[in-house]
Amino acid sequence: MKTAASYLVIRPDDSVLIALRPFAAGEEITFDGETLVVQSDVPQGHKIARKPIKAGENISKFGYPIGRATVDIAAGEWVHTHNVATNLEGLLEYRYEPVAEKKVQLQPSSQTFQGYLRKNGEVGIRNEIWIINTVGCINKTAETLANMANRTFQHAGIDGVYHFAHPFGCSQLGDDLQYTQRILADLVQHPNAGGVLVVGLGCENNYVDLFKQAIGPYDPDRVKFLVSQQVEDELQAGLELIGELVAYAEQFQRQPIPVSKLKVGLKCGGSDGFSGITANPLVGAFSDLLISQGGTTILTEVPEMFGAETILMNRAADEQVFQKMVELINDFKQYFLKHDQVVYENPSPGNKAGGITTLEEKSLGCVQKGGFAEVVDVLPYGGRVGKNGLNLVQGPGNDLVSVTALTAAGAHLVLFTTGRGTPFGGPVPTVKISTNSELYQKKRNWIDFNAGRLLEDADLPGLSQELFQYIVKVASGAEQTRNEQNGFKEIAIFKDGVIL
Known about the structure:
Layout: E1 2-3, E2 7-9, E3 16-19, E4 28-31, E5 34-37, E6 47-49, E7 58-61, E8 64-69, E9 78-79, E10 84-85, E11 112-117, E12 123-124, E13 128-133, H1 139-152, E14 161-163, H2 174-188, E15 193-200, H3 208-215, E16 223-227, H4 234-249, E17 255-258, E18 263-268, H5 279-292, E19 296-299, H6 309-313, H7 319-338, H8 349-353, H9 359-366, E20 375-379, E21 389-393, H10 399-408, E22 413-418, E23 430-434, H11 437-442, E24 449-450, H12 460-475, H13 482-486
Parallel strand pairs: 13-14, 13-15, 15-16, 18-19, 18-22, 19-21, 20-21, 22-23, 23-24
Antiparallel strand pairs: 1-2, 2-3, 3-6, 4-5, 6-9, 7-8, 8-10, 11-12, 11-17
């Protein structure tokens, strides 16, 4: 990667350079002893042709094609959606071509964090009480109950009482109902919750007795149930049950836990032209560090793997994992086609405004969050991680849905890279990492960590170590993320079916 004060070239054979500041038409760029005249105004984070590119010729960035020129592009021209088209198509066939060498080796470590060891052997990084409602009809009941409980138990030895509103649980059929049950059941089992109150209405499809089957075995001291229609005052009854859960959760105290027990979700949202240059590679370096010490990371956003999927497939731990990855990719493409949608209707308007032109470009930046570790497992939507290392989980690119899926898969916290910013937070600590320093300075109430320093005063090995130690502090409760400070904790559940 070659940087100057005003531009960046990622790979020597790339046909574009990246504008680190806005350029005006007529400005000159000196590169490798040659002078390039900028042909039109170019926004920050966007691409400028380093050389003439013929119509139909591939345009390369990150050392890979990101699309083809639709017209002749002169050296110095702005390269974007007006003169570039995707090369991607629908369903593809793939061959198992594993890389010969593992780039992330296990290195036993004495690194620990201060976590909560649960009775079933799992580990949490928060000791919260969660209210999980089986149906959207009682969202406000759950919200009122959480507010009452936080006032009543504000001095208790817990990290707060939280509810997670959603619109589902009734009038759902087939996969939709199963998705709702699976995600909510995963939240019930999540170790960041020291205690869980499941609140039902009483007449919903996802009624409490049926939902118990989705939850599976549970500790009755840790998980309590309330059916609102069966009691005179659901708020009073709920508060009494929460009191029992608080007493149970208070017995847990932070203690040293090996960092190998840590599970971290990887997500990007509101991406820009710097996402694949700063924040996503930084998260990838963090992922490799954690995995080298026996830990676990989880990657989702399947549509944002399209065009870069073979990079991940070639790192499959074995042929069985490879086949799961093929199914993951092609099943999600089939989901688009089933609804008569273009598979590659991406990137979003915000992504384009930030400098991302095609899905290939977005995906090549996105998959960098997975670093260089082998992929050890592929999980369905609502699946829970069972293997240490890099895991993939089925889920869309949507921020709320995918962060919820990462949490449901077992992530203790989520690293969320962004170039444009978002205040959103999932059920677990959601660490916002800015791709550029301007966003970090502008939105300090949203952003936790600045990856823009990679274009200024920091190198990747040093900043990844700094991020790693920051995450240890977050996991230990010594740091709160902005979403926690702001009280922003939300869920969203995938929907693909009929509502009655």
